[in-house]
Amino acid sequence: MKLNGLKPDPAQMLLVIIDVQERMAPAIPEGPLNKLIRYTNIWIEASKEFNFPVIFTEQYPKGLGATIPEIRSSLAGIEPVEKISFSCCGEAEFTRALKASKARQVVICGMETHVCVYQTALDLLEDGIQVYLPADAVCSRSKFNWKNGLNLMQHAGAVVGNTETFIFQLLEEAGTDRFKKFSKLFR
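User: That's the sequence. What structure does it adopt?
Assistant: Structure tokens below.
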């Protein structure tokens, strides 16, 4: 069975981190929030290791605050794309950066799975971009909304998995320095 381009390829990849903001974070249960932080930071490390670009967004930062420090500190030198549209694709600055990246595959991390992540994923899929959703790096205020958002995106054509699965697909083999580096991050 041919995968039709579903295998992650760092040469075509872009990491998008959506709205992990200070005033949103307290509304997320602690367990899912901690997973989101951990796995988003692993994705940021992967973007550096495999040399693919990162875009991160902030939904109405005047009201919702900046990106939380636990993630922002890993994004040195990158400025956020401010947005008011739920879908990142509704912001001209985001679409310019997306086009400039020439990415054909997008990994999405962030909040909230059933709103901004969902709407962004649908718009990307509609534009012919393959979407990867690591379920451990997205979250919502309720488990129901998180699951519902993941199911809707999977039915629309997104590849839903987890960070370790996708990163190990990028690594392709054990025994390398990259493998050793990332396997430590998953312990």
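The helical segments are 30-50, 61-64, 69-72, 92-101, 113-126, 143-156, 163-171, 177-185.
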